[in-house]
């Protein structure tokens, strides 16, 4: 199994509060990703990183920011959480973009976030 | 535009039945990759298979097999003699090589929930 951990695994927060989710990898992979999973929508990409301090937006980036100060850590921040951000959040890693060489993305265990 | 369609939202079968999960994709690229992932009730996402657009050979792994047909833009997944442990949500995903719109990232279908009853 790829060495990916996410913290916290569960969180309940209130609307308007800031929330930070952490993804940590031990595989030294260059690429890291944040997805959200919602019923009827599958997995949708929020942001991704292609190196330290290098990040880009995904399909559903509004209301989210990310940071990557070390290869092994990728943080997802909800500056002011809203109920629409209640979801399960998955981190993933890969050595290169899947479209480049077909590298597999490996996923972390997920974080269940509830915004009341 | 790139897109992955899994038209079957939910499938229910009885143990030992064969079941096929459909995946249809859209892409303008000639080089692309297709993936299947499994998400059991415990919630983690497990990689099952990767296939590139130049390899149309079918793949078999135990009770699992995959049928890739470029002519119909499909990459279907068949489970033979299904078991209760196969109950999960299965996702098909596409990545394109030329960074046309997806920057080489994965585009997921919405998933098919398979329930295998004893």
Reconstruct the topology from this structure.
The complex is a heterodimer of chains A (116) and B (118).
Chain A: E1 4-7, E2 10-13, E3 19-25, E4 31-38, E5 42-51, E6 54-57, E7 64-70, E8 73-78, E9 87-94, H1 98-101, E10 106-107, E11 111-115
Parallel strand pairs in A: 2-11
Antiparallel strand pairs in A: 1-3, 3-8, 4-5, 4-9, 5-6, 7-8, 9-10, 9-11
Chain B: E1 3-5, E2 10-14, E3 19-21, E4 24-26, E5 32-39, E6 46-52, E7 59-61, E8 64-69, E9 74-79, E10 88-96, E11 107-108, E12 112-117
Parallel strand pairs in B: 2-12
Antiparallel strand pairs in B: 1-4, 3-9, 5-6, 5-10, 7-8, 8-9, 10-11, 10-12
Largest sheet of chain B: 6 strands, mixed
Taken as a percent bin, the fraction of beta residues of chain A is over 45%
Instruction: Calculate the mean pLDDT score of chain A and round it.
Output: 94
Radius of gyration of chain A using CA atoms only: 13 Å
Give the largest chain-chain interface (CB within 8 Å). A-B, 25 and 26 residues
The largest sheet of chain A, given as strand count, sense and whether it forms a barrel, is: 7 strands, mixed
| Tally of separate helices of chain A | 1
Mean pLDDT of chain B: 92
Structural class, from secondary structure content of chain B?
Answer: mainly beta
Describe it.
The complex is a heterodimer of chains A (116) and B (118). Chain A is mainly β and 116 residues long. Chain A is built from one helix and eleven strands, in the order E-E-E-E-E-E-E-E-E-H-E-E. In chain A, the strands form two sheets. In chain A, strands 2, 4, 5, 6, 9, 10 and 11 form a seven-stranded mixed β-sheet that branches. Chain B is an all-beta fold and 118 residues long. Chain B is 0% helix and 52% strand. Chain B contains no helices and twelve strands. In chain B, strands 2, 5, 6, 10, 11 and 12 form a six-stranded mixed β-sheet that branches. Chain B has a four-stranded antiparallel β-sheet with strand order 3-9-8-7, with no helix packed on it. A two-stranded antiparallel sheet of chain B has the order 1-4. In chain B, strand 5 and strand 6 form a beta hairpin. The model of chain B has no long low-confidence stretch (mean pLDDT 92). Classes of the chains: A mainly beta (116), B mainly beta (118).
